[in-house]
Amino acid sequence: MNAVIENGIVPLDNNSLATPELQPNKRRRKKSIVWEYFTIEPVSPGCSRACCKQCKRTFAYISGSKQAGTSHLKRHIALGICPVNRLNQEKNQVIPYTPSSQNGAVTAPPRKRCRATPGSVTIALDRDNCIHEMARMIVLHDYPTDMVDQPGFINFVQTLQPNFSMVSFNSVHSEIVGIYRREKQMLANLLAGIPGRVSLTLDLWTSDQTVGYAILTGHFIDGDWRLQRRVLKFVPVPFPDSEVAFNHAVVSCLSDWNLESKLFALTLDQSFASESVVGNLRGLLSLKNPHMLNGQFLIVDCYARILGRLTQEVLGGTREAVVRVRNSVKYVKASESCEEKFNQIRQQLQIPSTKNLVIDNLRRWDSTYEMLSTACELREVFSCLDTSDSDFKEAPSMEDWKTIEILCAYLKVFFDAADILTSETYPTSDAFFHQVYRVQVELIHGTLSEDSFISNFVKPLYGMFDRYWRNSCVVLGMAVAMDPRYKLKLVEFSFAKVFGEEADMWVRFVDEGIHELYFEYIAQTLPLPSIHVEQRCDGYVKVEAHQDEATIPPPDGLSDFDVYVSEISGHHQTKSELDQYLDESLLPRGSEDFDVVEWWKLNRIKYPTLSKMAADILSIPVATISGDAVFDTGSKKLDSCRCSLRPGTLEALVCANNWLQYRGHQSSPAFDFSTAIVKKEIK
């Protein structure tokens, strides 16, 4: 059938009359916009295909009694699949209609329609939404708040949308505050539904001014039994050297979030906390948390910072060798010709390493480790470059390479131990027991090395880390005891290797600690005695206490003992939840994806009290800094732009940045801009 198709209409002839499936085209004109870009080409009786006028590609359209529709044809044009159409769109050219010819006759062009170009969508400009997204961008990426007044940014926005009138700083600032308040309310709702307590980390940020900034982060298990980590407070500390400056920050945080009765543990770092500061904070913790081992959960060393101090110690002790290697790497990377010569020697020597040379960033010790380890693997290339390039005059010696090799071995230990903090999900406290134990064992072995250089190299490191180990091993031991794969068995095994003859004493500390803490949780679940007050006619008040018709024990200071006896006798001498849990066999360690918090969630009916205690212990933080600052060689420092902001604005930026990141960079839920925008800055 050789019917001429014009404007999507098949003229009828004697042959076409015999084709019933083409009959509808006679009566109804095709209205889809795609027919401005496609023609219908008959292939065989009862079968036609749509042909793109620009790239000449054909698509299924009619086959027998089935019609394919036009959606796939629209996608071909609208999504830029057609290569000719895409090329012309990139050149901002409009393709004029090219009439088709049949037997030398030019067909008339189709009637023009007032339709939008396929693929283009007209969206009304929402000014309020633009302000919201601009403020959200500033919060998420730490952009300067006055960027909306900068000429370069204004020109950029005008280029994107000439009809958009640029917003003022006050409008964006108000929306930043609005984002902060909405996110804070959602976080407050989350905290209100947690089953247990909240642990805090306290860190100090510095600035070019003499003012410090305390940042407090809360760690807790939420209502869905997931470990959460959120910044709760960012407050200026005008006098960081004051003994009570950080007490005020902690009290302000607890009061702001109604957590006065929910504080469990506090973690800080000795880099900014003197002994007097630690003593004051310990007293505050005992006051705010008297029922949790009298406030003993105070960790005075940040796990990430102690690893950072170890790396600075070893890098400082080998500074001359490190400098020579760094200068050698800089020499190779300084010019393309030198780097090309280096790579040629590398190929000739057939070095198996696939790493490329990098120059380290002095603000991050992991980059120094990467530079040194890569250079150490390519040291033969450097030796050959020394003989073939007369300008290369600072080649490291064999002694230097030996020093760097030993240095990299211990840097790898520290790197692997710190890398756990860089995961997307913050690890539970039990996971740190393994890392701290491995570092301690490696350093012990180093001090016992027969190589005097290694022994002398490691001894100062061991002295620094052993202090941290002894201060934290009991708390970490209690945490790993809450892992059903290990319980106290791993504590016994590990302490025997580290403490030797003193192992039994340290194991007893852990065992007594978890039992005493469990007793505190049991005491909180027991009902309080009811108090009956009777007003007598002689003006005196008679007070009678009742608790299930039992007499109140005498005030001899042994009330805790009576609660203990009541707890064990009330259960007919049955084992407590804790002892039952510890006596059960260990879970197999086969799965690396084991979720200890999820296990306690599934077993909270079996262990109603112990599961609450486990949730609080497993959420104890051991590091005060975020994952992106784990390898930093210095403390966080605010720039001059941020320091110039008011305290309320600065807190809104820092806190909202953290909250938005934990929400996965998803857009904020729908809200009413007319009521959400806050017009007044936080004081």
Written overview of the protein:
The protein has 683 residues and is of the alpha+beta class. Among the domains are: 46 residues, no CATH class; 156 residues, 2-Layer Sandwich (Nucleotidyltransferase, domain 5); 118 residues, no CATH class; 139 residues, no CATH class. It is built from 25 helices and 14 strands. A hairpin with a 5-residue loop joins strand 8 and strand 9. Helix 10 packs across helix 14 and helix 17 packs antiparallel against helix 18. The longest helix has 30 residues. The N terminus and C terminus are likely disordered. InterPro entries: hAT-like_transposase_RNase-H (IPR025525), HATC_C_dom (IPR008906), RNaseH-like_sf (IPR012337), Znf_BED (IPR003656), ZnF_BED_domain_contain (IPR052035), Znf_C2H2_sf (IPR036236). It is found in: Nucleus. Its main location: nucleus.
What features would you highlight for this structure?
683 residues, Nucleotidyltransferase, domain 5, four-stranded antiparallel sheet, six-stranded mixed sheet, alpha+beta, disordered N terminus, 11% strand, single chain
Can you tell me the overall shape?
Answer: globular
Instruction: Briefly note the structural class of the backbone.
Output: alpha+beta
* DSSP strand count: 14
Q: What is the CA–CA distance across the termini?
A: 82 Å
Predict the CATH topology of the domain at 176-300 and 636-666: Nucleotidyltransferase, domain 5
Largest sheet: 6 strands, mixed
Given as residue ranges, the uncertain stretches (5+ residues, pLDDT < 50) are: 1-27, 92-114, 528-553, 665-683
In CATH, what is the class of the domain at 176-300 and 636-666?
Alpha Beta
| Reported CATH architecture of the domain at 176-300 and 636-666 | 2-Layer Sandwich
Kindly report the average pLDDT value.
81
Computed CA radius of gyration, to the nearest angstrom: 36 Å
| Oligomeric organization of the protein chains | single chain
Report the sheet-strand fraction: 5-15%
Helix content: 40-55%
The helix count comes to 25
